[in-house]
Amino acid sequence: MQKDLTHGNVQRTMLVFAGPMIVGNLLQQCYNIADTWVVGQFLGAGALAAVGAAYTLMTFLTSVLIGLCMGSGSVFSFYYGKGDKRKMQESILASFLFIGIISVILNIAVFAGMDLILKLMRIPEDIYTYMKKYVWVIFWGIFFVFLYNFFAYLLRAVGNSVTPLLFLAIASMLNIILDLLLVVKWKMGVGGAAWATVIAQIISGVGIGYYLWKKEPELRFIGNGISLKEACSKEVLPEVVRFSLAASVQQSVMNFGILMIQGLINSFGTAVMAAYAAAVKIDSFAYMPAQEFSNSFSIFTSQNYGAKDEKRVKEGVRAAVKTSLIFCGIVSVLIFLFARPLMLIFVKATEVKVLQIGVQYLRIEGAFYCGIGLLFLLYAYYRGTGKPEMSVVLTVISLGTRVLLAYTLAPLLGVRMIWWAIIIGWFLADITGVLYMKKKKI
């Protein structure tokens, strides 16, 4: 099921390849939303606030591993486009060992530092018990997040975006079914919602690994005649580490900034926390296709950059920008018009204050999705052309601006300044990324 992205109509190739990735992330958002819906409707605003804060924490922690896998995927797709299967196999073994060790260390560290983490997040006392119960369970899924994402990015690097979708679909449906059973029927509370997610993560991680081992022998990280010495050579390992760490830093800095924003939001009380927990799920769902399209664009760019086809890379840039901006414009209109009905999916009509805050968030931030859409493409472009460090720079600009403005202005002018700080950060990073591209003529 491998696909060479160095031939064929540029826009059609990217869209066809991106399709399963977009659908897969939609499914992933669906089972995230299932947690939020079940908790919000059956356990109340306090539990919803706790799960929402835990979701932000887990997004930060897993972004470290997802970024590492994403960066390694750029190396894999580069060598695949170049036609160097041997180097690709060496990179696969090196990256599996490198990221696998980090995932184990991270998993141990979060259990050891659980109380400190919750304290730093400024969790209100009325939801602290909910939060601790939820994260104690959800942390067990971290290693399996690594497994799924490593194999998913490996398969996508060689043009197979369908198989990761199938395993994600199975996990998504299982998570929704388990949510209903564990929380609604068996009354296991927030712990039940967490176990539903962890079980789904185990199935997807182990399942996709087994598939790759049986069906894609040339992509195995052992058994292809590649020695540990070759994988850890000065030519292979440093390149894997460079791309992996750059993408991981970019992803983790981005989500660390989001985590800091969550801490500020927590200081405004349970109503704001609950509104943000629901609204951010809608927000993530809305711009997710643009994010996944940019991941497709990154792999397209990396394969063609490896094949030294600069003309095709430039055609890809034009097609990607056009596609992303059109999509983001349409979604912005829809979110602005239907903000309240969307909030009512997660929040009861009687929660008037929560609804009001959530609608405000969606109508401010949702009007400017073109900013985040372009920023995703810039991240993808710099990863695909061998300059992953520039993605880190843009992330620091975006998140640094967001955090600085939010912490400075929100205590004085209210929570809405947090929403405006996010938008300003997007556009400053966009301007920087475009100007750098024109200056360096890349």
UniProtKB/TrEMBL annotation:
<feature type="transmembrane region" description="Helical">
    <location>
        <begin position="165"/>
        <end position="186"/>
    </location>
</feature>
<dbReference type="Pfam" id="PF01554">
    <property type="entry name" value="MatE"/>
</dbReference>
<feature type="transmembrane region" description="Helical">
    <location>
        <begin position="418"/>
        <end position="437"/>
    </location>
</feature>
<keyword id="KW-0050">Antiport</keyword>
<dbReference type="InterPro" id="IPR050222">
    <property type="entry name" value="MATE_MdtK"/>
</dbReference>
<feature type="transmembrane region" description="Helical">
    <location>
        <begin position="192"/>
        <end position="213"/>
    </location>
</feature>
<feature type="transmembrane region" description="Helical">
    <location>
        <begin position="92"/>
        <end position="114"/>
    </location>
</feature>
<keyword id="KW-0472">Membrane</keyword>
<feature type="transmembrane region" description="Helical">
    <location>
        <begin position="392"/>
        <end position="412"/>
    </location>
</feature>
<comment type="function">
    <text>Multidrug efflux pump.</text>
</comment>
<protein>
    <recommendedName>
        <fullName>Probable multidrug resistance protein NorM</fullName>
    </recommendedName>
</protein>
<keyword id="KW-1003">Cell membrane</keyword>
<feature type="transmembrane region" description="Helical">
    <location>
        <begin position="319"/>
        <end position="339"/>
    </location>
</feature>
<dbReference type="InterPro" id="IPR002528">
    <property type="entry name" value="MATE_fam"/>
</dbReference>
<feature type="transmembrane region" description="Helical">
    <location>
        <begin position="12"/>
        <end position="34"/>
    </location>
</feature>
<keyword id="KW-0813">Transport</keyword>
<dbReference type="InterPro" id="IPR048279">
    <property type="entry name" value="MdtK-like"/>
</dbReference>
<comment type="similarity">
    <text>Belongs to the multi antimicrobial extrusion (MATE) (TC 2.A.66.1) family.</text>
</comment>
<keyword id="KW-0812">Transmembrane</keyword>
<feature type="transmembrane region" description="Helical">
    <location>
        <begin position="359"/>
        <end position="380"/>
    </location>
</feature>
<keyword id="KW-1133">Transmembrane helix</keyword>
<keyword id="KW-0406">Ion transport</keyword>
<feature type="transmembrane region" description="Helical">
    <location>
        <begin position="134"/>
        <end position="153"/>
    </location>
</feature>
<feature type="transmembrane region" description="Helical">
    <location>
        <begin position="54"/>
        <end position="80"/>
    </location>
</feature>
